[in-house]
Target: TonB-dependent receptor
Amino acid sequence: MKFCLSALAGALSLAFSVPSVNAQTPRNTQAAEELATVTVASEYSGSFKADTVQIGTFREASPLDVPQTSNVVTREVLDAQAASTLFGALRNTAGVTRSQLNGSTYDNIAIRGILVENRGNYRLNGSLPIINLIDVPLENKERVEVLKGASSLYYGFVPPSGIVNLVAKRAGKDPVSDLTVSANQYGSANVHADVARRFGSAQQFGARVNMLAGREDIGVDNYSGDRSLGAVAFDWQATDALSFKLDVEHYRKDVSEQAAIKVMAPNADGTITLPSIPDARTNLAGEWQKYDAEATNVLFRTDYALGDNWGLLLEAGHAKTTRDRHYSQFENYNLATGAGTLRIFFNPNQEFENSNYRTEIFGHVPGDWVSHDVSFGYTANQRDQNPRAAGTATVAQNLYDPVDVPEQSAPSAPNHNPSTIEDSGWYVFDRMSFGEKWQLMLGARGSRYESETTSMRYKANDINPAVSLVYKPVAGVSVYGSYLEGLEESGQAPANRANAGELLPPALSKQKEIGVKAEVAKGVLLQAAYFDIERPSTTVDASNRFVLNGLAQYKGLELAASGEVTRNLALIASALFLDAKQLNAANPATLGKVPDNTPERTASLFAEYRLPNVPGLALSGGLYYVDKRPVDNENRAFVDGYTTLSLGARHTTKLGGKRTTFQAVLDNVTNENYWGTAGNGLLGVGMPRTLKLTAKVEF
Model:
């Protein structure tokens, strides 16, 4: 793995990066024409490198024009890896780890050691905050994007871990009629249909439909379930200046949830002893302990060209997720005998809703020596939730010799703990271009935030700046630096804390970045960034309460490469060298310590070779490395680092005149047993070796 890190470091230049400041690609006299044209070409490029970025206000911008660390996992990468989960996609980007949960139900993710907030940091088509409390399907997505670091200018109150954007597939100029069947050796099987058409005398109407149904099994004991997806994406070019888009998706997953393992209480000397890593197929929970969740997301967008240089954008969306959950954690166990207690949390009929609105006017102001691309916008978001709980039950269990868990009933009627967050704000941004080489970007956001529960209310009003400078010394290279401030939610107390459900007050985060991006031989995008982020830190106090704990600083170097090295060889690679510390002098136990679940190093390398002598055949391999991580903020124990290996092959041919692709992917080839997740005092084991088989027919 040291060799992989060194190779990545040597391949990429030293770099920098900037925040999400510019909301639009540069405007010119063709702005109205661009707005008035429906993109009928498919976004699928068949490349590991994306030609554009569609996150935030950087819609359709070249990666070189995005003054911030950004990664795009294209449809070609997702297909080459047979990826169907968020973690499966994001493991290709630097600094991504699982947090608290091991992925048996959904992916709880941290980036650069900072949790990606599940209600605000995940976006559909760069806009709607979807609720990541159920596995978000990728079958109807064209790409997965990550905008690293602070993104408050456009997205409001969000942690500076990054925005994860899922871009929906849309109808292109070519019709699509695909049927895919997939399975693994444990009995999981799915059928997926993907159909797209354009209609009308000028092909002004477009529709894409994705449907999926199947049985779920991930190879762990006491696990069963199913999932389904129904999604449609419509677009309509009503006139030369007016267009509409509508996305609707509904998905459900009902599976058994694998039990988490709680970190032991500290020893007399202040250290913590971790148990031996259980076999990856071990599940201490009962198969009856279901995680039954469903989500519906609706997003409507209108674009209107106001003239040659000005345009108007209107968006409205709603996301709703409900779940019934029988979550459990194994605790109070004896390391020698394995005897302990399984605590089961009953959470029936939990509800989470987001309503989101945006309006934005943008335009281009030409000038003799400086031109301006400006954006004026307003967003309003309301997040409602009711994380109902109906008490806990305990049963005896053994870590080394698990027993069947008899079905339990909730010990009490569900309580109601509703809360509401209102996050609204205006933003203004000006990208000033001085010739072709220099750009100065100035922005500001005025925020109004209010969170309310049955027992407390917090309010915040502030104006935060954003500034960046971009220099393009030669064609294909951009260098930039930035400073950004943003307010963020400090988090919500998790279910296993004494103040479960409590919303912590919002706080200020600050970010500085410098970076460079370069396109090499028109086939590979190289990126490097040095970042320095200060943000509020949280901890668990002596009363088992989730509370604020001063500041934490995250600084480091991030490297990335993606694209076609040669006509036959494609790769996507990343590395992170992170220095993260807690800075709260009032708490000597955590001062100078690494925040929990934060690795100092991560790296990934995935490559596919398309054999020139065997048309249609491609072989692939991937290495994914995560360094050791502390299990708590006091650093009283660390889980070991791990490396997993994936191998794959896919072959495209014609059967009965239809283009057909057969694929096999083997994840965790060596069947490595490792702690795949930590954080919040919990541990989870990584997934066992899994063979995925797919067959896709294009009618």
